[in-house]
Fold:
Amino acid sequence: MRNIEFRVWTDDELLSVDGLEFTDGVLTNIVTLYKDIWHADVALKLGVVELDQFTGIRDSSEKKKKIFEGDIVHFKSEMISGLGIVKWNEKTGAWEIDDIRPRTKKRGHRIYPFYPEAAYRVDGNIHENPELLEAQHD
Structure:
């Protein structure tokens, strides 16, 4: 069975998520690890910026980092390579990488699905490393 995990970004920090609670389809509570204690709704009180889901895929580094929505990743296979932001595509029901390289922007916008044979490297994420995005568009 697939393990569904999330990370929560508040205005100023990343919190580990232990559980989510919904009422009538609306997120009402996030159980998070905050200052080494599990709290209910602390993330909501702190001002949640983003709730990112784990893709179920790990990168190719020695640490085998988990790849989350919002991560900035390099990817390379025999046929393609790129740099982009991990996003969920509602239409296709799949995780994709939204390419941010300037040279692809000139040829048109490209989105790549995750390829089983590709190697991935997490370089950062859109919350902690916005400079990675800015550097790509210069």
